[in-house]
Amino acid sequence: MPAFTHEQWREAAAGLAPRTAAFIGGRFTAALDGRTFPTVDPATGRTIADVAECGPADVDAAVSAARKCFESGAWSSAGPAERKQVLLRLADLIDEHRAELALLDSMDMGKLVTDAYEIDVPGAAGLFRWYAEMLDKDYGEIAPTAAGDLALVRRVPLGVVGAVVPWNFPLDMATWKLAPALAAGNSVVLKPAEQSPLSALRLAELAAEAGLPEGALNVVPGYGETTGAHWACTPTSTASRSPDQPPWDSNSCATRRNPTSSRCGRNAAAKAPTSSSPTAPTWTRRPKPRARGSSSTRARCARPTRGCSSPARSRTTWWPGSRSGPPTTHPATRGKRHRSRAVLRR
């Protein structure tokens, strides 16, 4: 690992040319209405670049590109060995561009460049390698049945997965969502935080260079109340809603607590490797309002196809004596946050 001096980091930062357009269908493109928003260096208050502000039309175009890629089978039907090689190549490219990615995150959201260089970027590359190596080592199942019956459990991609990431670990959290979803064969539309979109755009470019098909990964920068809200409420994304749920109106899904992310968790993609195995059975919540203090179902990025049984569902067990959830305060814990326990069962 080369040792960079402070002056060398400053020189490298001055020579950066960050990508600022949306990445849709395998290429960079400006927002259809031409709008942009500034991304600012929090350390200096200087505007780093003006980034494309994607609107509803851009989100729809990204979803269409992702859906087209998924249905073509270019990625969803690719063999485990093929997907493995692409993801391993992406991990290598992340390592090759380690200093650039570290600088983008440091300038975009203000973290120490040494932390990004020594921890975040190697962690992102390592996670892609982990899921790549898992692909040809994870098998289906044959369920126990009565004589004369056969039940097979296959792991298949879900479809178009929506991913929304926060500002504080831009590259790492994008990777936590992208790696399991892509490894499973899904197509992804990623909405990075408006405060730190630059490393996600560069990551998409590296993924295309690694061999990811056009439309398998799309990045739509913009504001949460516009770009993110439209993406969360669109009925065209498999991962953001169950097929048995009716379409919704244009009101905010968040304020109405619409279960838009029941198929892939509250964030419509993986939160962490331990909670989003792309080959784990799908869990769906019971169709009832989410009670205050309850925990959400875990993220899943692929569904099993069972030969003789209904899809797996989750059940939430509330605390005894409460129909709507646990009490928010207790004499022994007054003034402290008090959360419920949720038990997920098959």
Descriptive overview:
This protein has helices at residues 6-14, 56-72, 80-96, 98-109, 113-134, 170-183, 198-210, 224-233; strands at residues 22-24, 27-29, 36-40, 47-52, 141-143, 151-157, 160-164, 187-191, 217-219, 302-306. A hairpin with a 2-residue loop joins strand 1 (22-24) and strand 2. Helices cover 33% and strands 13% of the residues. With 346 residues, it is an alpha/beta fold. The chain has a 3-stranded antiparallel β-sheet with strand order 5-6-10, with no helix packed on it. Strands 7-8-9 form a 3-stranded parallel β-sheet, sandwiched between helices. It has a two-stranded antiparallel sheet with strand order 1-2.
Summarize this structure as a short list of keywords or feature phrases.
346 residues, three-stranded parallel β-sheet, 8 helices, disordered C terminus, alpha/beta
What layout of secondary structure does this protein have?
Elements: H1 6-14, E1 22-24, E2 27-29, E3 36-40, E4 47-52, H2 56-72, H3 80-96, H4 98-109, H5 113-134, E5 141-143, E6 151-157, E7 160-164, H6 170-183, E8 187-191, H7 198-210, E9 217-219, H8 224-233, E10 302-306
Parallel strand pairs: 7-8, 8-9
Antiparallel strand pairs: 1-2, 3-4, 5-6, 6-10
Helix pairs in contact: 3-5, 3-7, 4-5, 4-7, 5-6
Order of strands across the widest beta sheet? 5-6-10
- Which sheet architecture does the biggest sheet show? 3 strands, antiparallel
Which range best describes the helical content: under 10%, 10-25%, 25-40%, 40-55%, 55-70% or over 70%? 25-40%
Mean pLDDT: 75
Order of helices and strands: HEEEEHHHHEEEHEHEHE
How many beta-strand runs? Answer: 10
Number of DSSP helices?
Answer: 8
The gross shape turns out to be globular
What fraction of the residues are assigned to beta strands by DSSP? Answer: 5-15%
Tell me the Rg in angstroms.
21 Å
Calculate the terminal CA-CA distance, rounded to whole Å: 47 Å
- Specify the structural class: alpha/beta
Oligomer kind? single chain
- Poorly predicted segments: 239-346
